[in-house]
Amino acid sequence: MRSISRSTQFAATAMSAMLAGTAVLAQGYPNKPVRLVVPFAPGGAADIIARAMNEPLNRAMGQSVIIENKPGAGSSLAVDQVAKSAPDGYTVVIASQSGIAVNPIINKNVGYDPEKDLAAVIQVTRSPLVIAVHPSLSARTVSELIAEAKKTVGKLNFATSGNGSVPHLATMVFSGLTGAEMVHVPYKSGGLAVASVVAGDTQLTFATSPSVMPQVQGGRLRGIAVTTKARSPLVAGLPGMEESGLNGYDVSIWYGFFLPAAAPRAVVMRLFEGTSQALRDPKFREIMAKDGTETPGSKSPEEFAAFVRDEIRVTAKAIRDSGAKFD
User: Fold this and answer.
1) Is the preceding omega at residue 30 within 30 degrees of 0, hence cis?
2) Which residues contact 179 (CB under 8 A, 6 or more apart)?
3) pTM
């Protein structure tokens, strides 16, 4: 038997020390504030969810969770930053399909691979998008909106939370399936997009429930439908797409927590457990339900990771089948 070289022994010792250090780090996590990166400007759904969840998450983690807004590139800037950050659990991103499934498909230069560079921790929310229009628009149903768009080709402006965002995907797939040509006006958050429709600068939006429903309920916008196949029990009074006459269209948006891929298992589990506890907070659940948003959680990080892999495949197929072209 050959003897083990000193270099091999040194490498083994170094690896053992590193693993031991990681284990100690994980056991003490968190022992300082955790940074939660929100990929959109204040006022959008991700920001609303993060801030509503902040207090119960602080309690559950035993540390302050500091929210940092980093908008840009349809959420890819924030996701890329977190993917490349230290894998110690102190930098977390709340991301949706925008940064995880859509942008990596339509933009090969995003700089990260969501399946290789990120650790899926837990699903936080799920909700349909809401199609809402400015009251000056005559359309009150999906079929009327399609007819209006076809009658005024290229004159209806739709606002979204950015290129490659889920609302952008939802609207482009809608256009691809129906032939309704509209002009995209991207903003840095869902809140800003909705505000533009309220102001009349744009005419419609496919927006997240938390960012748009207060405006619909206040009469400043008119809700047309939800983007899921069937009605949502949490968005009263709006039909689903099948009921609206558009078969084969079914889009919802989810948000989840992600860490850098190399985050220790113990850190992932501690964040999973803390977030699960926060999601059960009655006040948080009540706030989300008012805006038409569910708080499903996940059974485990592995379950959420499998869900994310399926979402990436489904999103790629939806883009291909619709023939949608992204600017």
Assistant:
1) yes
2) 146, 150
3) 0.81
Examine the domain organization and report whether 103 and 52 are in the same domain.
Answer: yes
| pLDDT, one tens digit for every residue, the chain (327 residues) | 344 445 445 444 444 444 444 444 556 899 999 999 999 889 888 999 999 999 999 999 999 999 999 998 878 999 999 999 999 999 999 999 989 998 898 888 889 999 999 999 999 999 999 999 999 999 999 999 999 999 988 899 999 988 888 899 899 889 988 999 999 999 988 899 999 999 999 999 999 888 899 999 999 999 999 999 999 988 888 999 999 999 989 898 999 999 999 999 999 999 999 999 999 999 999 999 887 889 999 999 999 999 999 999 988 887 777 666 665
Contacts of 236 by beta carbon, 8 Å cutoff, 6+ apart: none
Other Cβ atoms closer than 10 A to 23? 13
Identify the burial level of 114 via C-beta atoms within 10 angstroms of its C-beta, where 0-12 means exposed, 13-18 middle and 19 or more buried.
buried
CATH number of the CATH domain containing 273: 3.40.190.150
Q: The domain containing residue 169 runs over which residues?
A: 128-226
Angstrom distance (rounded) from CA 311 to CA 314: 5
How far is residue 325 CA from its own chain's centroid?
Answer: 21
Polymer length in residues for the chain: 327
And the tokens for 274? Answer: 């803390």
